[in-house]
Design goal:
The complex is a heterotrimer of chains A (319), B (419) and C (290). Chain A has 319 residues and is an all-alpha fold. Chain A contains 15 helices and two strands. Chain A has a two-stranded antiparallel sheet with strand order 1-2. Chain B has two domains: 192 residues, Response regulator (Rossmann fold, 3-Layer(aba) Sandwich), CATH 3.40.50.2300; 184 residues, Rossmann fold (3-Layer(aba) Sandwich). A seven-stranded mixed beta sheet of chain B has the order 7-6-8-9-10-13-14, with helices on both faces. Chain B has a five-stranded parallel beta sheet with strand order 2-1-3-4-5, with helices on both faces. The longest helix of chain B is centred in the first third of the chain and has 20 residues. About 4% of the residues of chain B have low confidence. Chain C has a domain of 202 residues. Helix content of chain C is 76%, strand content 3%. Chain C contains eleven helices and two strands; from the N terminus they run H-H-H-H-E-E-H-H-H-H-H-H-H. Chain C is globular and about 60 Å long. Chain C starts with a helix and ends in an 8-residue tail after the last helix. The chains are: A mainly alpha (319), B alpha/beta (419), C mainly alpha (290). Chains A and B meet through helix 1, helix 2, helix 10, strand 2 and helix 13 of A and helix 1, helix 3, helix 5 and helix 7 of B.
Chain lengths: 319, 419, 290
């Protein structure tokens, strides 16, 4: 176990360093922007999966957590322009608290009712933000990003690096949860909440943990958003795309392990980025929608499950 | 475990290979590439597609004459899906992968602002298409915006409406303000609020409605009616504009002046649906087939546009955005020709310091790259008798009332009489 | 500002809107309320109906409501097909809760895209002789544009109510909702019953779509605005109760109208979601819950 953990952490560290080295070598900014979006979805999909895939509570309100992170950052930028890490931490705290709140909702709301409540939450929060003039309200506001940053030749590269690091952290968190007793408790809740309770699993604590961590990660992913788009307004920050993608990606990749959302986000996210600059947007949506429906119907365990099956068959043949 | 990690690394390698495969080959040196993002889907899609057609007509016009400084023009564009988050990536691709020579903006403030800092960093000339005060924060001197809002866009936008009101006897005293809760409408009404103060009007109703998401305007307009305003200034988007006009007729809401900042009333499909209900409404407008607005080239352009538009299911008349979408690239092209240069700084300086003749009239830029003087028309819809399209392609239906230089008729006042 | 006339008008406007909401929610009340099939895509089917109506109205001059009724028939079969896929992929294997939800979410998205590809993203409207006209009873004004949907919504709810309580088939649906096993023992195939009921739900969605486009212009993504409302109505009224759905819809309509009239429209949407959240937290079984 500890060997595995060490290996995982080494790989994680290597990836972060690798992301930094790339910024010293590559100039083309398009790839940074595109990669930023894909990595952002790695964080969101992984975060969604901690609650949705591990614990079995389907959250339709990813956009709410993402946007709360983004708007927390906007409010701070408007007040005293703190450095980025402060924005990340604050965004994580606010969205984490929001997650804790909906965690208490799970006391009363199970299954589909929980999902509808998260959807409603997103709409209500969007309305609150639309009416909050300090952060631009419904009209939106332009955010000036810092001109330069040490060690990086421009801010785009820096943002890419930050998001790459966040993606590694998010996947590492999911992996750690999965391998710990908490992860097993989550699985028990997903399979049968009543039975889990009877078996002495501290279900409330675990559910609160899941909603908080999931929410916080989404908020952290949202915090740099205003620097990325430079102009933030509620409809784009609360876009339904975030909900659809963060749910479709784990579904396509596979929901039971940390690898699923990662594979799903990288594949679907990259496909979307390529489609944006090659195909029409309709095709883009059509691809995501069809993949989502196709996978839930035909490959319920996602790509990871599919590969597992194929490999099992191959291994079986060899033997 | 090691195997899984190998798979992950393999995946990344594959990804890199795919992205490299999608990089277009080195560009042909002969063409002048003009790059932009455009909303071809999403809420602004219909207008964005019409803008694209207008730009393609300009491209064909220029290429028929031999191109710009002997180089053919090529438009490179991507659909931003009306999502601001897509814009930074698109412009990075245009500049770093497609290596375009010039960039112009997509349609609408939300989609212009995300591209502005990129233009600034690279020192590119950046033509804007219908941004409302998009450059206020950046103050970038090579940004030029084609919508004729004026040097103080937010306030100038509704000035005509208030100028008209001021001239009426007895002078109106009260005003109701209603806006959709989104970017353009909020700003338009914010300007109207300031103007109301300036012109000494008392605001008796001032509310926003959720956009999108409002299906029935009856209760809202009843509240407006109960406030008994002399003037009613509305900032709304197409769906809401239709609902507001219909509901106003149903409940008999009759302020003395009604309209102002309603988007959508300029669209042919909506005009044909509302028909006679439009009579008497006074609203901002950009172009109408009035004799005072026959700018050089506009009719030739519209003829080409109207021939192609029905095939693409676009607005069949195209009076709203398309002439301006033509003009903002026309202006850029003319500047390149005049300076005989593809140098960003030279072209930018030329645009900044001269008056330009375009299909939307003479354009001179001032502070923040906005028009030096406001030319947002206030138009009253009159004499509409049916729902036919021919009603709206003839002069005498959309009467220009403001500014004075372009006036083509007289205001019927109060609104109830024009109805 | 606070006159009796104003109050009455706000009330009537709310009731009219509520009748329309009842039509929007009736089908969901069947599928979600009675059959436990969480059809998140219901608003997308409504919008699909709006576009079919638009097509028939624009090209053949059909009255919108008539068009809605005609298209309800093929819509029924679409519903049957969707349920068959749903049943075979999810219900049969007992995986309906999580993945079934995602299935409908994906379906919602797909329908939107199909609408965008076939009809474009422009606003679409219909024409009918009663749109834009109004009448008044005393001080209260009534717009036909809102009265027709109210009327159709009311009739739809009543017919469904009678169908569910008075006919054999309707009772069978109620039976499946309450005790699937018992119905099975009585020799009725619950799957067939559910298939029919889901088909009817989709058929009503298409009728509701014709009402939606009578009230105002539609564009392909407008369905999202109604997810919250239709679920608020179904949950508020109580799952599985047609009377509850009608009452819930009227309450929501009046609440929205009053908010718009007295507090300002910017909070009107928050009302429906506020009601939904409170209802979910305090009494998830709703007003008329079983």
């Amino acid at each position: 176990m500890s060997n595995e953990k060490r290996l995982f952490l080494i790989v994680a560290a290597v990836l972060v360093v690798g992301a930094f080295l790339i910024t010293t070598q590559m100039e083309n900014r398009f790839y940074y922007k595109a990669a930023y979006v894909v990595l952002q979805y790695v964080v969101l999909a992984t975060a969604w999966n901690i609650l949705g895939g591990y614990t079995g509570y389907v959250n339709f309100g990813t956009a709410a957590f993402f946007a709360m992170g983004a708007y927390t950052a906007v409010a701070l930028i408007k007040t005293w322009k703190p450095p980025l890490y402060v924005l990340l931490i604050s965004g994580g705290i606010v969205s984490g608290l929001l997650g804790l709140g909906i965690g208490y909702l799970t006391l009363r709301l199970r299954g589909v009712f929980f999902s509808i409540a998260t959807l409603a939450l997103a709409v209500v929060l969007q309305m609150v933000v639309s009416n909050w003039d300090y952060v631009g309200g419904g009209a939106g506001t332009a955010i000036l990003k810092p001109r330069s940053v040490p060690l990086f030749s421009n801010y785009d590269e820096f943002l890419f690096f930050v998001m790459a690091a966040l993606a590694v952290v998010a996947v590492a968190v999911a992996w750690l949860i999965e391998k710990s007793w908490v992860g097993r408790g989550m699985a028990a809740i997903r399979d049968n909440e009543e039975a889990a309770e009877c078996m002495g699993v501290p279900i409330l604590k675990i559910k609160l943990f899941a909603t908080t961590v999931s929410g916080a990660l989404m908020g952290i992913a949202g915090a740099p958003f205003s620097y990325f788009v430079v102009y933030i307004e509620p409809t784009s920050a609360f876009h339904l795309d975030y909900a659809v993608n963060s749910l479709a990606m784990p579904m396509i990749g596979g929901t039971t392990s940390w690898l699923g959302p990662l594979v799903g986000a990288v594949l679907v996210g990259t496909a979307q980025q390529i489609a944006t600059v090659t195909l029409s947007a309709e095709m883009n949506l059509l691809i995501v929608g069809s993949l989502l429906v196709g996978f839930v119907v035909f490959a319920p365990d996602g790509l990871v499950g599919l590969f597992g099956k194929i490999r099992a068959r191959l291994v079986g043949k060899e033997a | 475990m090691g195997r899984i990690i190998r798979h992950v690394i393999l995946g990344f390698a594959l990804l890199l290979a795919v992205s490299i495969a999608f990089t277009p080959a080195a560009h042909a040196a002969k063409e002048v590439k003009i790059g932009f993002s455009m909303a071809l889907t999403g809420p602004l899609g219909p207008a964005g597609k019409a803008a694209l057609l207008a730009m393609q007509i300009w491209r064909d016009d220029v290429n028929a004459k031999g191109g710009l400084l002997g180089r053919k023009v090529k438009l490179v564009y991507y659909d931003d899906q009306t999502k601001p988050a897509n814009v930074p990536g698109i412009y990075a691709k245009l500049l770093d992968v497609d290596k375009v020579d010039f960039i112009v903006s997509g349609y609408g403030t939300n989609l212009i602002v995300p591209a502005l800092p990129i233009a600034m960093e690279r020192g590119m000339v950046f033509m804007g298409l219908f941004g409302l005060d998009a450059n206020a924060k950046f103050k970038y001197n090579n940004y030029f915006q084609i919508m004729p809002a004026g040097p103080d866009p937010i306030v100038d936008w509704s000035r005509g409406f208030f100028e008209l009101a001021k001239k009426q006897k007895p002078q109106p005293k009260t005003i109701a303000l209603l806006s959709a809760d989104s970017e353009f409408a909020r700003n338009a009404v914010a300007g109207a609020r300031r103007n109301a103060k300036k012109y000494g009007l008392k605001v008796v109703y001032d509310q926003r409605y959720p956009f999108p998401g409002t299906s029935d305007f009856t209760p809202i307009l009843r509240a407006v009616k109960a406030a008994k305003p002399d003037l009613f200034y509305v900032g709304s988007y197409p769906g809401g504009s239709v609902g507001i006009v219909k509901a106003a007729h149903e409940i008999g809401l009759e302020p003395k002046l009604f309209g102002g900042g309603m988007v959508g009333l300029q669209y042919t499909a909506i005009q044909m649906n509302l028909g006679k209900l439009l009579n008497g409404i006074t609203n901002y407008w950009f172009w109408a087939p009035e004799k005072t607005l026959k700018f050089p080239g506009i009719e030739a352009f519209l003829a080409k546009y109207q021939k192609e538009a029905p095939k693409q299911k676009l607005d069949p008349l195209g009076y709203y955005l398309p002439p301006f979408a033509y003009a903002y690239v026309q202006l850029l092209g003319n500047a390149i020709e005049a300076t005989k240069s593809f140098d960003q700084a030279k072209v930018g300086a030329y645009i900044r310091n001269n008056t330009h003749s375009t299909v939307v009239g003479n354009v001179k830029f001032g502070k923040n790259g906005e028009w030096a003087t406001s030319r947002t028309f206030q138009v009253q819809l009159q004499n509409i008798k049916s729902n036919k399209m021919s009603e709206f392609s003839k002069p005498g239906k959309m009467i220009v009332l403001y500014p004075e230089d372009f006036k083509s008729g007289n205001l019927i006042y109060p609104y109830a009489k024009g109805k | 500002m606070l006159s009796i006339e104003f109050l009455l008008n706000a009330l009537v406007a709310g009731l009219l809107l509520g009748g329309f909401y009842a039509a929007l929610s009736a089908g969901l009340s069947l599928s979600f309320g009675l059959l436990d099939v969480v059809n998140i895509a219901h608003p997308a089917f409504i919008l699909f109906g709006s576009y079919l109506t638009f097509y028939a109205n624009e090209h053949f001059g059909f009255d919108p409501v008539l068009a809605g009724l005609i298209f309800a028939v093929p819509a029924y079969f679409v519903g049957v097909a969707v349920y068959k896929i749903y049943y075979n992929s999810f219900e049969k294997t007992g995986a309906e809760s999580l993945r079934g939800l995602v299935f409908f979410f994906g379906l919602f998205f797909l329908i939107e895209v199909i609408l965008i590809i076939t009809f474009g993203v422009d606003y679409r409207l219909v024409r009918a002789f009663y749109i834009g006209k109004s009448t008044s009873i005393g001080p209260v004004g009534i717009a036909y544009r809102l009265f027709v949907p109210f009327l159709v919504g009311g009739i739809l709810s009543t017919v469904l109510y009678l169908f569910l309580t008075k006919t054999f088939f309707g009772r069978a649906i109620m039976g499946v909702a309450q005790d699937s096993l018992a119905v099975q023992l009585m020799g009725v195939d619950p799957i067939r019953i559910k298939t029919v009921a889901f088909g009817i739900g989709i058929a009503t969605a298409v009728i509701a779509g014709s009402l939606l486009i009578i009230i105002g212009p539609v564009e392909p993504t407008i369905g999202r605005e109604y997810i919250g409302r239709v679920f608020a109505v179904t949950v508020l009224g109580g799952l599985g109760s047609m009377t509850g759905t009608l009452v819930g819809a009227l309450i929501l309509g009046v609440a929205e109208s009053f908010t718009s009239s007295f507090f300002g429209p910017s909070w009107a949407l928050a009302v429906s979601f506020g009601i939904l959240l409170i209802c979910l937290a305090v009494r998830p079984s709703g007003l008329f819950g079983r």
